[in-house]
Amino acid sequence: MSATTREWSFFFPGEGQDAEDATPIIGRVYDAEDAAQMAVEYDYHSCDGWERGENEFDVVVISPDGEQTKFIGCHELVTRHTARRS
Predict the structure, then answer these.
(1) Binning pLDDT at 50, 70 and 90, where does residue 1 land?
(2) What is the rounded CA–CA span in Å between residue 26 and residue 38?
(3) CB-side exposure of 27: number of CA atoms within 13 Å?
(4) Own/partner pairs for 83-86, CB < 8 Å, 24+ apart?
(5) Average pLDDT for residues 20-29, to the nearest whole number?
(6) What are the DSSP E strand ranges found in the chain?
(7) Which residues of 31-55 are buried (b: 16+ CB within 10 A; e: fewer)?
(8) What's the rounded Cα separation, in Å, for the pair 15 and 7?
(9) Of 48, 69, 72, 85, whose CB is crowded by the most CB atoms within 10 A?
């Protein structure tokens, strides 16, 4: 995939990826932060991102005009404790 595509996309440089490896984002994207959030969720659900734990990692978002913006991703694990009447 080329960085000059007309859709939002992302890649993970820490995984040895570059713009040529970018994954297109399917769906509506409003800005680079929105795209980065989608990329982090994709990493967690589609790339065994849960194995990272809470370690930070780089994600680069490519806008439709080819501009690259770097973000730091993190999978913040949350535990909820609940009790309910049986």
Answers:
(1) very low
(2) 10
(3) 10
(4) none
(5) 94
(6) 9-11, 23-24, 57-62, 68-73
(7) ebeebbebbbebbeeeeebeebeee
(8) 22
(9) 69
Residue 73, SS3 per DSSP: strand
- pLDDT tens digits, 25-77: 988 999 999 999 999 999 888 876 567 777 899 999 999 999 999 999 998 87
pTM above the 0.85 mark?
no
- CB pairs under 8 A, 24+ apart, for 66-75? 66/3, 66/4, 66/5, 68/3, 68/19, 69/32, 69/36, 71/32, 71/33, 71/36, 71/39, 71/40, 73/36, 73/39, 73/40, 73/43, 74/40, 75/40, 75/43, 75/44, 75/49, 75/50
